[in-house]
Write a structure and sequence with these properties.
There is one protein chain. The chain has helices at 56-75, 80-86, 118-121, 135-140, 164-176, 214-226, 231-236, 248-253, 268-274, 293-303, 355-373, and strands at 2-8, 14-20, 30-32, 35-37, 48-49, 110-111, 122-124, 178-180, 188-199, 311-313, 329-337, 340-347, 377-387. By secondary structure, the chain is of the alpha+beta class. A six-stranded mixed beta sheet has the order 8-9-13-12-11-10, covered by helices on one side. It starts with a strand and ends with a strand. Helix 6 (214-226) runs parallel beside helix 9 (268-274) and helix 6 (214-226) crosses helix 11 (355-373). Among the domains are: 10-54, no CATH class; 162-384, Thymidylate synthase/dCMP hydroxymethylase domain (Thymidylate Synthase, Chain A). It is built from eleven helices and 13 strands.
């Protein structure tokens, strides 16, 4: 029975040592980029149980998924530098028959993933190579039974995954944010001008450390694109995120006594599709009125992709008094390069716990939709925000 011991050298390269469980592991030394890789003890066996009847070649995705889910928990205990170098390479090997070309049946019902700290196995071969592994700090840190280090303060600023940008901003606000009063009377901790960049080539940035109401993201965006200002349409689809802004009480507080319940005024969708048109109510037909910014952007992308004026604004000072809620994500700009579409969105005010994860997903989806219509690929989405 054999295990594959995974030893990480760099982000995209790794060394595997086959070892027999009944014998001592033979120590081998590998050199990559002038760094010496020496055998070290593993932190923890994951011991993921799988069905003995699963075939390696037929069920590899399921088998690896089970092991990766457990491995991810262990990765949380590593320092940001270690995690950066290990995140791409953990958990890719399992128990298999000696001859993988003959069916690759799993011969044991346990998947073992052995993970080693990067700072334990990566040592400078030459004295003039700086060792940034913080070995002294790591030696003082004890890993508990759950593979976590509760006393260790983990710095997330260099972590690999895009989602850590969100966690970093939350951390930054808590630690350095200014205490300010606000319209609701709740009070805030805030910073000004935070920024995040998400690579849409690699994945869709739907955050996993914060549950995101995906149905709400999709339905609201389609509602914006339609130009509708009727909150009841969303509510009928089970999306009630605008309900409180369309109540009689709320509209009266906004001095919109004449406004029908659910009529939110010339908000996002109206500005996207009818900027400059005179707003009457949610029932009026605005076809051909105002400027259809969304249609203009799509036309410009198709006809003049190098244009630097592909901006869509929801911020219309003339209409703000008529809105149930002024736009938080105020405007966005699109950019085309090498057949790829990027979007940069500015948000004047945003709730880090609720609004930001929602808006990241929403503008990413909008970028995907426009790219599809214009026969482009997606590149990045950038959010520049005043964080509240």
């Amino acid at each position: 029975m054999c295990t594959w011991q995974l030893q990480i050298a760099t982000e995209k390269s790794f060394v595997c040592t086959i070892a027999n469980q009944s014998q001592n592991i033979t120590q081998r030394v590998y050199t990559i980029n002038n760094h010496e890789l020496a055998h070290v003890n593993c932190i923890r066996d994951l011991g993921v149980t799988i069905d003995r009847n699963l075939k390696f070649n037929q069920h590899i995705n399921l088998i690896i998924h089970k092991a990766m889910s457990r491995a991810f928990l262990i990765l949380k205990s590593f320092s940001s530098r270690d995690r950066l170098l290990m995140v791409k390479a953990y958990c890719t090997y399992i128990y298999t028959e000696k001859n993988p070309e003959e069916g690759c049946s799993v011969i044991n019902n346990t998947v073992v993933v052995i993970i080693s700290r990067m700072s334990d196995i990566l040592k400078p071969k030459k004295e003039n190579i700086e060792n940034n592994s913080n070995d002294d700090e790591i030696k003082k840190t004890k890993i508990n039974e759950n593979g976590r280090s509760p006393k260790r303060k983990v710095d997330l600023t260099d972590s690999y995954h895009d989602e850590y940008q969100y966690l970093n901003l939350v951390k930054r606000i808590i630690e350095t944010g200014y205490s300010k009063a606000d319209r609701t009377g709740t009070g805030t901790l805030s910073i000004f001008g935070g920024q995040m960049r998400f690579n849409l080539r690699e994945s869709f940035p739907l955050l996993t450390t914060k549950r995101v109401f995906w149905k709400g993201v999709v339905e609201e965006l389609l509602w914006f694109i339609s130009g509708s200002t009727d909150g009841n349409i969303l509510a009928q689809k089970g999306v009630q995120i605008w309900n409180s802004n369309g109540t009689r009480e709320f509209l009266d507080k906004c001095n919109l006594h004449h406004r029908e319940v659910g009529d939110l005024g010339p908000i996002y969708g109206f500005q996207w599709r009818h900027f400059g048109a005179k707003y009457v109510d949610k029932h009026a037909d605005y076809t051909g009125q105002g400027i259809d910014q969304l249609a203009q952007i799509i036309h410009t992308i198709k006809t003049n992709p190098d244009d630097r004026r592909m901006i869509m604004s929801a911020w219309n000072p003339v209409d703000i008094p008529l809105m149930a809620l002024p736009p938080c994500h105020s405007f966005c700009q699109f950019y085309v390069a090498n057949g790829e579409l990027s979007c940069q969105m500015y948000q004047r005010s945003c709730d880090m716990g609720l609004g930001i994860p929602f808006n990241i997903a929403s503008y990413s989806l909008l970028t995907y939709i426009i790219a599809h219509v214009c026969n482009l690929k997606v590149m990045i989405i950038i959010g520049i925000k005043m964080i509240i």
